[in-house]
Fold these 2 entries.
Entry 1:
Amino acid sequence: MNITSAEFVISNTDVKKCPAGNFPEYAFIGRSNVGKSSLINMLTGRKGLAMTSATPGKTMLINHFLINKNWYIVDLPGYGYAKRGQKGQEQIQKIISSYILQREQMTNLFVLIDSRHEPQSIDLEFIEWLGENGIPFSLIFTKADKLKGGKLGANIKLYLNRLKEQWEELPPYFITSSEDKTGREEVLNYIEGINKELQK
Ligand code: GTP
Ligand code: MG
């Protein structure tokens, strides 16, 4: 899929104030600092579209970007950033869960996992919660450029095996790097395929 336009539309904390209409939307979620905003910039080919930072906790709002005038990318705040404090984390949790549970236009949630780490309980619990609530999701293993040799494949295999303990069927998954654009075509083609299905 070619990205011909990508425009920031609105940021907010209230799911009811998200854009009206029924364009399909694809949201990106995961731990703080996993690379959500960087991935959105890589996918759209627009460097400064979503705000990124080396300090976790950068994205605090639900951010809508209109792509090719007919679908949305949504950048969500990250979960699990301890320095936000209990209250701050609860607030973010509320924003995230109300968006995920209430936003009917959300066609697919991409759950980002840092490919460098072993399966973390915070992500596994989040994925389990998605399952319990029947939320359509796929996985994206990020920062693939940071792993050398067979380590990347080994980590992903470990992750998928761990998920198999919980799930009969594995969700679709992608391997990406925002540094060298690994996975860009795969993710965009996946989105394009769903968009086409929805138009039938
Ligand atoms: P929050 O908004 O704080 O939840 O973080 P985020 O998930 O949006 O992460 P962000 O895109 O801001 O990236 C966090 C840090 O990781 C930044 O320093 C990025 O440059 C770096 N980063 C993100 N993706 C990649 C990647 O694919 N490869 C490498 N090497 N670094 C990455
Ligand atoms: Mg961000």
Note: Strands lie at 6-12, 25-30, 62-67, 71-75, 106-114, 137-142, 173-175.
Entry 2:
Amino acid sequence: MSNHNVLGIIGGGQLGSMLCQAAKKLGIKTIIYCNDQNSPAQNYSDSFICAEYTDEKKIIGFANQVDVVTFEFENIPVQTLKKIQLIKPVYPEPNINFIIQHRSREKNFINQLGIKTVDYKNIFSNRDIENVEELLPGILKTTTLGYDGKGQYIISSLKDFEKIDLKSEFILEKKINLKKEISIILTRYQDGSSIVYEPIENIHKDQILDTSKIPSNIDDKTANLSKDNSIKLANELGYIGTMCVEYFIDENNQLFVNEIAPRVHNSGHLTINAYNISQFESHVRSVCNLEKIEPIMESDAVMKNIIGEDIYNYKNKEFKNNEYFFDYLKKEAKPKRKMGHLTTLKI
Ligand code: ADP
Ligand code: MG
């Protein structure tokens, strides 16, 4: 069925670990390429290459050992992905990262399809902070390399800009009153068809995902629109693999795309236990061109992220039959670092 027997994965965090586990189940070997010697995914992969993402020799060596390449985080230099693409297929397509790695390009792409994002303005130099009053209070975000709220600043008044070094590129987004946040996980296969998981409701604390649950408590109209928008985005990108679209819902029930993640996503961890097929297995099936399986939700579920030193409260704990604890096996419990998660099924 498949001619892809060895899957190369760039990035070695928990998403990589879970991709390796899904691949193993399907009889596919994995090689992790990561710049961190302590990368947790090496515990689950068949082999591990530790090198910088710009190390051309190592990258080419890696590409020669695998049949197809994917990645578990989006901030890999696009040039690196394009070099690999000369040797082996890379899914999702590297040009997609060029758009999504940059918040301004990403929002522009989404709006051009007639899909709403919150109002924003590019802040590429000091001059751009004129006439931004209607976006205040707002959130200033670096255009690249932000995650888990890193590189973000609340701007309540123009005075707040004084503390910030505006040398790099930012966008200023209007801060909206969130009623809810949801995400859509979907997997688009190589024949252009997609499978879509049910909307997931997400609660963030300090801009980091805290809990995700299914079913989400939203009306059918919003649920359908969020699914339709996500499929439209995936089709337009020519996406192959699993991706996530994060949405805001405001007090007037308006739906906005927050951001797209071109990879498996933290909010989809509950698919491992609550569905017949996880977001990770769907991703591996898609990039390795295996048979498509429709996801079926088998149970309601809640997933809680375990952050920082809180992990030590779980390591020796006894769990009930409906509780599934995942320890990411990270060497150091730094504050704000995702260390594990607990999924509880409501059977
Ligand atoms: P990251 O790329 O770090 O995940 P996000 O842009 O998704 O950053 O922001 C993280 C969280 O911060 C969001 O999930 C949301 O809870 C909050 N947030 C971000 N932008 C806005 C906004 N414009 N209005 C209200 N809340 C926001
Ligand atoms: Mg986010």
Note: The chain has a mean pLDDT of 96.
